[in-house]
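Let's do one together. I've listed all components of the complex below, 1028 residues spread over two lines.
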Amino acid sequence: MSYLEYNVQTVPTGARKLLHANWAIVILLTAVACIGFLMLYSVAGGDLGRWAEPQMKRFALGVVVMMIIGLVPIWFWRNMAGLAYLGALGLLILVEFFGVVGMGAQRWIDLGFMRLQPSEVMKIALVMILAAYYDWLPLSKVSRPFWVLFPVGLILTPTALVLKQPDLGTAILLIAGGGIVMFCAGVSWWYFIAVAAAAGALVFAVFTSRGQDWQLLQDYQYRRIDTFLDPSTDPLGAGYHITQSKIALGSGGWTGKGFMQGTQSRLNFLPEKHTDFIFTTLAEEFGFVGGFSLLTLYGLIILFCILSAIQNKDRFGSLLTLGVAATLFLFFAVNMSMVMGLAPVVGVPLPLVSFGGSAMLVLLAAFGLVQSAHIHRPRSR
Amino acid sequence: MKRSPKETDESAGLVTRRGLVLGGLQLGFMGALGLRMRQMQIEEADAYQLLAEENRINVRLIPPSRGVIFDRNGVPIADNSQNYRIVIVREDAGDVEEVIARLRRLVDLDEDDLERSLKEMYRRSPFVPITLVDRLSWEDVAEVAVNAPALPGITPDVGLSRHYPLGEDFAHIVGYVGPVSDNDLSKLEDPDPLLQIPKFQIGKIGLETKLEADLRGKAGTRQIEVNAAGRVMRELNRDDYTPGTDIQLTVDHGLQNYAQARLAGESAGSVVIDIETGDLLAMASSPSFDPDLFVRGISTTNYRELTENKYRPLFNKTVQGTYPPGSTFKMMTGLAALKAGVMGPEETVYCPGHMTVGGRRFHCWKRGGHGWMNLDDALTQSCDVYFYEAAQRTGIDTMAELCHQFGLGERFKLPVSAVAEGLIPSTKWKAQVRDEVWRPGDTINAAIGQGYVLSSPLQLAVMTARIASGRAVEPRLVKSIDGVEVTHEEAPPLEVSTSHLNMIRQSMYNVSNGRRGTARRSRIVADDIRMAGKTGTSQVRNITAAERARGVFRNDQLPWERRDHGLFVCYAPFDKPKYAVATVVEHGGGGSSAAAPPSRDILLYALYGDVPPLDAYPSDQREGIQEMHDSMVLRPRQKPPSGPTRA
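Okay, and this is what the predicted structure of the assembly comes out as:
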């Protein structure tokens, strides 16, 4: 095993591990979460207990979970990768039968104290299994068709299950997240070009299939695409979210209307103002300054992750770090594009800011893996 | 698998290169997001700000029209009238004080009302429309509309408001609606979103609240675009409301009006029931009040007037008031004795004017005594001692059982507020509730409808209807809901022998027609509609030995609160019973003088379907009756609105 080739003694042990944690990332994550608390307090109309307080509790729990995961050696997590993937897959199959129907889709398992979304767990488990796979696979085989098809299968199996729920947003994130790990592992550019071409063809097929017997997407998904392309056609129906979200965001101006002063969010134009559309409230109340600050914080998190991955000579650790960073990126990039009218409304939360238990916990657990990779990275003497 | 240091370096280099490419792409995308944000929030900010101001899409609820309540002929008792009002949206008004000061120059604003509305306005979200003034004239509304530019945030509006065209007549039965209060909301588990509409009217009392679920209807929605001034720019979508269900009552509006007018000036209640069907044709409670006062929001002065009036206008005497039935109860005592076989129909009892039981002396109302009395004599002349003896022989529990058969001590299921159960005492009741032993004296008191016995005019009317028909007639108030007749099972016969009932009926006939009958003055002389009845006078005070020694006070010497209640129950026609009436006049003095005349008049109206002709009255009373009818302010009988009837 590769880590044996490095001097294990150079890896910090015991409490000293904490000194070697990537504290920059912890601080940045906390800063983002604090913005989230503020906004949840604001959209609740100054009610702390409604969303902000439970969110704070979950964040505190999440940070503890992150540090515990971070202190466990990275090789343990690599050995767990297969188990994590199979477990997440099992949970996904389970929601097909026992899931609670929420928001029109079967996505949850009710654990009593929280609702678990197996698709969230799968996003991280997929990154883990792919990183472990490429850690195991000799470099020479990385771009061979057979050895490419295997990880593609790993990606598409859960994607198919998620699409069946149906949850288009998560399906896209799974494919994109998996693809990014494959890209980082060094799979040839040609595969990605081919997939892009195929995707273009698929989009073409999706549009031509509409109204035919073999229609590929649900009607509501088509409507979302339609209204994304031209929101003004249906200002109250499906285009409602996008139009209202753009108005709220755009009317924020340079510095916004002030904390708790956002008229658009206040007027309840946005039904999911505390979850998927929370960014509009931030942008409305704190304007460009507020929105750009959040974007910068996310950017810094990505940057620190990439730096950590580049420093890390352990293939599993660096791929995992890049994969987790990519997952975070995909979350906020898709969410922000959505509220700015650059992407259809697919129901992706703003990471660490949107109200929601399992998404936040899973994301912080993933950053625990990043910490573990960082703490236990091989060091030359 | 083991990897050579060369491969490790190669791998690390590859990951670094790809990682940097990926990072570059991600940062590039973030840059694009930042640029888009800049474009929307800085370059196009003005346009979006304008949109935010102008293009507010609101979903508003359309309150449904409340179900109309009709009388048995289809005449509306409670309907909805157009109501012009002025609505303010705080957020759009800007300087609320200034806007209201300007509005004040155009429209009269009631200070109390205004204060309440403003309090409500500051409590709710700034964009919720709040009604400032209600029930404006069209001229006032036009005035406000013309001055709209000077009144930001103010919009004239038209809505429906409950209206009671028959005013005071139905205040007790139908009740009234009022704006929903926090108290109302807190009582509901899952409140209808409609109730969030400020000043939305819901039933507060009476039928309006009992049948709220039927009457309310379902809200519609209206999706509208409003501009910065709060003005509706266009309606985007409309989902119309489902109106509330119409309800038809069994009550006749003319009879109800006549009964109210006939009882005016007294504190009294009177119930008219159809003996065959149980339909309640009138339930008059006097004095009454104007329900529209409550719809508008009653002022404290008016409210205090109503609550401090010793005649208790807010109290529904017909169902809520319970009184000792006095001698009207003697039919029950007599019938119970006959049924138990402890007293023969012709058996006589000697009345010396009093009777001693358990060491206590119980008096007959006639101090000198009636002498030898059989059942008919005793009922006709209302001899107390006869019934003391009859009750003693029967026993209270046997009597109570019979009373329940006749509806006394039973709470009838009517959709009006506070239907009282009354009280028919028994040994079991006294042991359980009062934890005391039943005493022989208690039976004596109960024999003449005094002591613990309590009943409402409604119960007495039902009792009379059951005596007249021999069937367990159930009272009903709702004739049809949404045009569907409320079905009524045929009343089952009572477990009483017809010959016994006939004896009681004959005696009741004699009460109002016999030479010595206590209600002879209130007889009906029209041959085909002879009336049977029974008077009752119930004491509200105990006659002390000292008073008795001085000679019992005459009622008119006593203060009003201490005078006797006057009661009368009757039905007609005697041969073919159609309607029964029970009347209680609180502190009215004797039953024959206070309660029998109005009961007779109300019964006659029911029989004739209009103000009765003079030849139904004894010839010596016609002049007085004519005078009385001339002085009564009656509402002319109405015809149901033309066109297809809704009820």
